[in-house]
Design brief:
Blueprint: H1 4-19, H2 23-36, H3 39-59, H4 83-96, H5 100-113, H6 117-141
């Protein structure tokens, strides 16, 4: 078990590496958590990544007002949904709506599926969140990206 105190800086590194496209370093951090952590640590990583996604979403110039009840959702390819991208979209959407029962159930399903499905689902969540961070960065600092 890694525990929350040690997990926080690892998640910060993980998200930063993913946002800047350093796939090797992001994979190294993810492998470290998978190797030394347990299911609770990996679920904690998913929750922390989703919280980072909330921060990125709220940094967008047209951020929804969560306190006024704006509804959030992510597009998923419904014609041929990739199960890992679908996990990411559902986990992040549930997290943004404060539905911890669903985030727990989704993670339990991914965990039960084992590797490589679990790792690919966590990577899809990380990709979704890093995309939100890049979008928030470029749309708030570079008008030509909007």
């Amino acid at each position: 078990m890694i525990g929350p105190a040690a997990l926080v800086p690892l998640v910060e590194d993980l998200v930063r590496y993913a946002v800047y496209g350093d796939v090797d370093q992001a994979a190294h951090v993810l492998d470290r958590v998978a190797e030394h952590g347990d299911a609770a640590d990996m679920y904690g990583l998913c929750v922390a990544v989703a919280e980072s996604g909330r921060d990125a979403l709220l940094a967008l110039p047209t951020a929804p007002d969560l306190f006024l009840g704006d509804v959030l959702g992510l597009d998923a390819d419904t014609a041929r949904p990739d199960p890992h991208r679908l996990f990411a979209a559902r986990f992040l959407t549930a997290y943004l709506h404060d539905d911890r029962e669903i985030t727990t159930a989704l993670y339990c399903a991914a965990h039960t599926a084992g590797d490589p499905a679990r790792t690919e689902s966590v990577c899809a969540l990380l990709a979704q969140v890093s995309g939100l961070h890049r979008r928030a960065t470029f749309t708030t600092t570079s008008p030509e990206w909007t």
